């Protein structure tokens, strides 16, 4: 791990993609057969505004220091806080949970805590999950989270749920660092990243 993507200069645009490989075949009768691999990762296409060399230098130096795809680092998705109320001290409630739902507790009572589209992760994992349905806590602060993809690791009973950020562990999607420069020493830069939990 080699640190965090610099927050300055600020990114002007981010495209977020979910990559979930599926094998699809079509029979002679044109029946479609699809089989999901169960794997998934997030991908990001980052774009910065046109910058001066001094503004661009921290981003260029950081990207080059990643040694192509060799290093991982953290990236905070800008302007993407959770839409639910969150709050409390949410914890995993029960051991040996797997799949695409998770029992949790420690939320504020009777509250819409996470909304479909919100990101979260178990504290001991770097894999980020997205809510596929709203989660409302009950009168005791318990809530079931429904999300995608399926858990890649079994979280421990009492493990904290992280909803701030969202912070992704990523790597460059290519070994090539390429910049564009023009008259007046102005630089344009875009960078593709993939989740690397």
Report on the structure:
There is one protein chain. With 197 residues, this protein is mainly beta. The chain folds into two domains: 13-78 and 168-195, Phosphorylase Kinase, domain 1 (2-Layer Sandwich), CATH 3.30.200; 91-164, Elongation Factor Tu (Ef-tu), domain 3 (Beta Barrel), CATH 2.40.30. It contains one helix and 18 strands. The chain has one helix at 53-65, and strands spanning 13-19, 22-26, 32-36, 41-47, 51-52, 73-76, 91-92, 101-105, 112-114, 119-122, 129-131, 135-136, 143-148, 161-162, 167-172, 180-182, 186-188, 190-195. A six-stranded antiparallel beta sheet has the order 7-8-13-11-10-14, with no helix packed on it. The relative contact order is 0.24.
Structural descriptors:
197 residues; mainly beta; Phosphorylase Kinase, domain 1; Elongation Factor Tu (Ef-tu), domain 3
What is the name of the CATH class of the largest domain? Alpha Beta
Number of E strands: 18
Cα-based radius of gyration, to the nearest Å? 20 Å
Order of helices and strands: EEEEEHEEEEEEEEEEEEE
What is the CATH topology assignment of the largest domain?
A: Phosphorylase Kinase, domain 1
Summary, kept brief:
This protein is mainly beta and 197 residues long. It has one helix spanning 53-65, and strands at residues 13-19, 22-26, 32-36, 41-47, 51-52, 73-76, 91-92, 101-105, 112-114, 119-122, 129-131, 135-136, 143-148, 161-162, 167-172, 180-182, 186-188, 190-195.
Task: Indicate the topology.
Layout: E1 13-19, E2 22-26, E3 32-36, E4 41-47, E5 51-52, H1 53-65, E6 73-76, E7 91-92, E8 101-105, E9 112-114, E10 119-122, E11 129-131, E12 135-136, E13 143-148, E14 161-162, E15 167-172, E16 180-182, E17 186-188, E18 190-195
Antiparallel strand pairs: 1-4, 2-3, 4-18, 5-17, 6-15, 7-8, 8-13, 9-12, 10-11, 10-14, 11-13, 15-18, 16-17
């Amino acid at each position: 791990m080699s640190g965090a993507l610099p927050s300055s200069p600020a990114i002007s645009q981010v495209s977020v993609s979910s990559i979930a490989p599926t094998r699809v075949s079509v029979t002679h009768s044109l029946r479609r057969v699809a089989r999901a691999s169960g794997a998934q990762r997030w991908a990001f296409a980052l774009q910065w505004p046109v910058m001066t060399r001094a503004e661009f230098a921290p981003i260029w130096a950081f990207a080059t220091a990643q040694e192509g795809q060799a290093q991982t680092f953290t990236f905070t998705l800008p302007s993407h806080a959770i839409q639910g109320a969150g709050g409390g001290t949410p914890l995993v409630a029960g051991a040996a949970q797997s799949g695409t739902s998770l029992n949790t507790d420690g939320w504020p009572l009777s509250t819409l805590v996470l909304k479909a589209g919100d990101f979260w992760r178990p504290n001991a994992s770097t894999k980020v999950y997205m809510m596929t349905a709203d989660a409302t806590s009950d009168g005791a602060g318990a809530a079931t989270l429904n999300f995608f993809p399926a858990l890649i690791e079994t979280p421990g009973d009492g493990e904290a749920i992280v909803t701030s950020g969202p912070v992704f562990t990523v790597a460059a999607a290519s070994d090539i660092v390429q910049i564009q420069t023009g008259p007046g020493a102005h630089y344009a830069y875009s960078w593709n990243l993939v989740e690397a939990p």
